[in-house]
Amino acid sequence: MSLEGLSINFATVRQGGDFGAIVDACLAHGITAISPWREQVHGVGLAEAARIVERNGLRLSGHCRGGFFPAPDAEGRRLAIEDNKRAVDEAAAMKADCLVLVVGGLPAGSRDLKGARQMVEDGMAELLPYARAAGVPLAIEPLHPFYAADRACFNTLKQSLDLCDRLGSGTGVAIDVYHVWWDPELEEQVARAGRNGQILAHHICDWLVPTTDPLNDRGMMGDGVIDLKAFRAMIEAAGFHGPQEVEIFSHRWQARPVDEVLATVVERFKTVC
Amino acid sequence: MSLEGLSINFATVRQGGDFGAIVDACLAHGITAISPWREQVHGVGLAEAARIVERNGLRLSGHCRGGFFPAPDAEGRRLAIEDNKRAVDEAAAMKADCLVLVVGGLPAGSRDLKGARQMVEDGMAELLPYARAAGVPLAIEPLHPFYAADRACFNTLKQSLDLCDRLGSGTGVAIDVYHVWWDPELEEQVARAGRNGQILAHHICDWLVPTTDPLNDRGMMGDGVIDLKAFRAMIEAAGFHGPQEVEIFSHRWQARPVDEVLATVVERFKTVC
What we know:
CATH architecture of chain A: Alpha-Beta Barrel
Number of domains of chain A: 1
Largest interface: A-B, 31 and 31 residues
CATH class of chain A: Alpha Beta
Number of helices of chain A: 11
Shape of chain A: globular
Oligomer: homodimer
């Protein structure tokens, strides 16, 4: 099985040093698709990161991440837009497939979930012309409802795709199995996204039972309860054939050597994905 | 403000001793609606529990709990039905408003979420004639998607109400703010449930930011991000005027004296609910 369909989100191996060091580790395992985080790009500088990407013929399945649009006041929301424009610039310079958006949750002190959702819609609408001009698709990543308050108030595919429909071209979704595997409407919404060309990324990991930490106990593929082969078949049936991007936030795996993590990822990718 | 609209789920004060002791603590605070758990009823025996309920004119806003229908084999599913019938008997003996169902998650070793959901539907269909004959409404409690794998594979109001519609009379939902507050379709589904007389219970607590434990870090009303007054207004607009049942699974509150917990519950009920 070729590893062309495998991408490594750098959160999975953030213990591996700077941008260049993580790229080298990926290449050593035959992996040529990546998805870095902004601070890792900033660490070496955008120009150097883009050179590394080009020199090694790497594909960016996404750039992580923009978003966090809600803020208590207009100035906070304006600053968020400005920061998102820089993220768009970075994604463009590295020719990323998309800019992944973790859209943000409730502003500090707020209980107004609807208001926060409106701030996301307004923020994306303002950012979108800039992203279109740069040729960078914006990928809403619906996050698991567990994160509705503090990370992303878009929590289902349907809700996110409805927003994409309102915003129009240049928008879509990043479908992470961890966030959506439980959704009773998963199949119909994935099919809908595919029909409309709105699947921009496919992230994988696994859901552990029990999950002991809400943030950092995601599982390695095969160690949990998600039927990953069936999930991928559904994604491909919907017309998306881009890489499966491995994004594992895990205290356990972060404590292991990067080479061990990547070797395990490759083995699991070949057997259970 | 009268406390008639306030019910205490015994999980909130499980440190308070046996069934009778917890009832006494509730009465001391003017609380006359309760929702006990089966093991607390079994602890004193059903006949004694029913006597305590009758003698004190208590209202049971629910009996906790039936459910857990999925199992790896037919014998396991049959045993679950039998156990649920006993739970129906208990609810009937104590004249509970409903039997609350935590329907169960994936059978051990399974990744077949659809199959588990079918087992729930089949189990409820089998239990329902018995419950109808006993005059005990079955309340599906859609649980937060965080619990889809190990506690309940029904995770939204829409999904649960669709099942109620298929099953027919004698079924409805227990709407717990903790599990559904994030749902983008909350308003329309609450209204739908109200139109069809399917709201059987309303549970309250709060969602803390951050939530540090997936199971036992629910918040006291007012300490989190849920707009409880707006939520209750929505429930009443849908036609449900039964008690607000306080169910707080929390290591923090379980470590406090029962009188302190109940005094806090009463104060918050009067101010933020």
